[in-house]
């Protein structure tokens, strides 16, 4: 178990879910900034339950301006982009009313998908069940879909090496899902392939759940649907292979060609006619022939004659070229700036330490500051000085001792005891626990604490400084720079007022 491991590391027990639906237990981790919402490998938040109010705030009350579904408001289940209070961008899939009547079934399905974490997936990070509302929350991919880049491009089409990279990445994503016990992917097509901030292709996690409890697994034209699905209405792992074959056809042709038509072209050996003319011949005939062969195998009428996803990935891997060229360069898109701009104001020692993300220096400053900035945050009556108060203050003392000794896990435990009682509020305790979380590699929880410190003391520069460090750890560099500058401004204002920093 790592330092300060989250309670969300594994899905909840089914018994707890049953009790929760019956109102016997409180919901698990209902806030996206709860201390349990720690980040998993690669900075992906652990799966959690979101409140409807949080998702409304993130999407401007599900404004039409926030819709990112390719078919816009005509789509049966709309997808919105949104931004959480912690500045993380998300994608929210909003199902039609009563698509999933049973909240327990929807939650269990979502938890099953939410356990997956892979760099080739646009991972599911949460869900919401509130009244008739059923929503899924995923990582937001800012650089459009494969369909947009293949069929509706403005400046440049996708070069051949990038198309091979897309094929491999999606095969690896599907192979991973299958190895984790989720081999069924519903309605795989070019709209399900997304590009992240680095331009790397990822598979949308939304296809791992059906559009409704009893809904169809395929919503595209019947010409692209696996033949066995037309016969039985059931999707199988072999059906996913067939759909992968249609994506390979898209990559080859740059058009959405019905598989039957494409196979007729291949039988007539019209390979040149099949290839995307916008490539202008800039592709390897040998590689193209290999991909055409794989597509033909995937599109076999008999499911048992199709290859495995693992075998497809193994066949696509040797075809990769330009492995050292970043995806965003091949796509012709700009990459997010990694380094924050220089702050507009001079920085204090605290500001300088935060700008450098020097956690050791921040720790030394917080130890020296003690609790001098907590003045005026608590006004307690005589009656409140109870045994409970003594125990709470003792917990804070134990936390302070552990904090000085750099025993950050123990400090978190004791500071949490102090905070959870709720009789006193202390921005300093939240700032100290925020640093502890950073040192335990939990930037989401650190950001939550820094924001709470700001709520208690709205003009306290340290609260803003700690937020800037947490945001930088979450790769939100522009937001981190803005927060750092705001903190420096507050500090400058304090100094002009003669209060010190």
From TrEMBL:
<dbReference type="GO" id="GO:0009742">
    <property type="term" value="P:brassinosteroid mediated signaling pathway"/>
</dbReference>
<keyword id="KW-0418">Kinase</keyword>
<comment type="similarity">
    <text>Belongs to the protein kinase superfamily. Ser/Thr protein kinase family.</text>
</comment>
<protein>
    <recommendedName>
        <fullName>non-specific serine/threonine protein kinase</fullName>
        <ecNumber>2.7.11.1</ecNumber>
    </recommendedName>
</protein>
<dbReference type="InterPro" id="IPR001245">
    <property type="entry name" value="Ser-Thr/Tyr_kinase_cat_dom"/>
</dbReference>
<dbReference type="Pfam" id="PF25575">
    <property type="entry name" value="TPR_BSK1_C"/>
</dbReference>
<dbReference type="InterPro" id="IPR011009">
    <property type="entry name" value="Kinase-like_dom_sf"/>
</dbReference>
<feature type="compositionally biased region" description="Low complexity">
    <location>
        <begin position="18"/>
        <end position="28"/>
    </location>
</feature>
<feature type="domain" description="Protein kinase">
    <location>
        <begin position="65"/>
        <end position="331"/>
    </location>
</feature>
<keyword id="KW-0808">Transferase</keyword>
<keyword id="KW-1003">Cell membrane</keyword>
<dbReference type="GO" id="GO:0005886">
    <property type="term" value="C:plasma membrane"/>
</dbReference>
<dbReference type="InterPro" id="IPR000719">
    <property type="entry name" value="Prot_kinase_dom"/>
</dbReference>
<keyword id="KW-0723">Serine/threonine-protein kinase</keyword>
<keyword id="KW-1070">Brassinosteroid signaling pathway</keyword>
<keyword id="KW-0519">Myristate</keyword>
<dbReference type="InterPro" id="IPR045845">
    <property type="entry name" value="BSK"/>
</dbReference>
<dbReference type="GO" id="GO:0005524">
    <property type="term" value="F:ATP binding"/>
</dbReference>
<feature type="region of interest" description="Disordered">
    <location>
        <begin position="1"/>
        <end position="34"/>
    </location>
</feature>
<dbReference type="InterPro" id="IPR011990">
    <property type="entry name" value="TPR-like_helical_dom_sf"/>
</dbReference>
<keyword id="KW-0547">Nucleotide-binding</keyword>
<keyword id="KW-0472">Membrane</keyword>
<keyword id="KW-0067">ATP-binding</keyword>
<dbReference type="InterPro" id="IPR058209">
    <property type="entry name" value="TPR_BSK1_C"/>
</dbReference>
<dbReference type="Pfam" id="PF07714">
    <property type="entry name" value="PK_Tyr_Ser-Thr"/>
</dbReference>
<keyword id="KW-0449">Lipoprotein</keyword>
<dbReference type="GO" id="GO:0004674">
    <property type="term" value="F:protein serine/threonine kinase activity"/>
</dbReference>
């Amino acid at each position: 178990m790592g330092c300060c491991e989250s309670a969300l590391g594994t899905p909840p027990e089914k018994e707890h879910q049953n009790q929760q639906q019956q109102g016997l237990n409180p919901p698990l981790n209902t806030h996206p900034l709860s201390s349990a919402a720690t980040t998993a490998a690669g900075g992906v938040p652990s799966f959690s339950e979101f409140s409807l109010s949080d998702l409304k705030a993130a999407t401007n009350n599900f404004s039409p301006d926030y819709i990112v579904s390719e078919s816009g408001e005509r789509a049966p289940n709309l997808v919105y982009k949104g931004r959480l209070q912690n500045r993380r961008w998300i994608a929210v899939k909003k199902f039609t009313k009563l698509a999933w009547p049973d909240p327990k079934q929807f939650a269990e399905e979502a938890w099953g998908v939410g356990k997956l974490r892979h760099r080739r997936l646009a991972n599911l990070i949460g869900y919401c069940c509130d009244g008739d509302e059923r929503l899924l929350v995923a990582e937001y991919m800012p650089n459009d879909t494969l369909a947009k880049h293949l069929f509706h491009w403005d400046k440049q089409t996708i070069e051949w090496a990038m198309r091979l990279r897309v094929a491999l990445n999606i095969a690896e994503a599907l192979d991973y899902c299958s190895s984790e016990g989720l081999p069924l992917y519903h309605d795989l097509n070019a709209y399900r392939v997304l590009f992240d901030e680095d331009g790397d292709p990822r598979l949308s996690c939304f296809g791992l759940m059906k559009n409704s409890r009893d809904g169809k697994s395929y919503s595209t034209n019947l010409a692209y649907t696996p033949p066995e699905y037309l016969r039985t209405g059931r999707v199988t792992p072999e059906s996913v292979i067939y759909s992968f074959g249609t994506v390979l056809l898209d990559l080859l042709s740059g058009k959405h060609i019905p598989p039957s038509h494409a196979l007729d072209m291949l039988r007539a050996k019209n390979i040149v006619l099949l290839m995307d003319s916008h490539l202008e011949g800039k592709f390897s005939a040998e590689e193209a022939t290999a991909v055409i062969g794989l597509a033909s195998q995937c599109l076999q009428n008999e499911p048992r004659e199709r290859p495995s996803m693992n075998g497809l990935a193994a066949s696509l891997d040797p075809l990769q070229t330009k492995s050292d060229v970043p995806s965003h360069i091949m796509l012709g898109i700009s990459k997010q700036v990694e380094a924050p701009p220089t702050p507009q104001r001079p920085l204090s020692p605290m500001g300088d330490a935060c700008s450098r993300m020097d956690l050791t220096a921040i720790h030394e400053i917080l130890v020296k500051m003690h609790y001098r900035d907590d003045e005026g945050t608590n006004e307690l009556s005589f009656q409140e000085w109870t045994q409970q108060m003594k125990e709470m203050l003792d917990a804070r003392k134990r936390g302070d001792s552990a904090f000085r000794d750099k025993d950050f896990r123990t400090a978190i435990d004791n500071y949490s005891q102090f905070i959870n009682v709720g009789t006193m509020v202390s921005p300093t305790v939240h700032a100290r626990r925020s640093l502890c979380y950073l040192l335990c590699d939990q930037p989401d929880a650190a950001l939550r604490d820094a924001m709470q410190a700001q709520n208690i003391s709205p003009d306290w520069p340290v609260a803003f400084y700690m937020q800037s460090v947490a945001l930088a750890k979450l790769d939100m560099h522009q937001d981190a720079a803005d927060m750092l500058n705001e903190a420096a401004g507050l500090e400058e204002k304090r100094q002009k007022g003669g209060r010190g920093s």
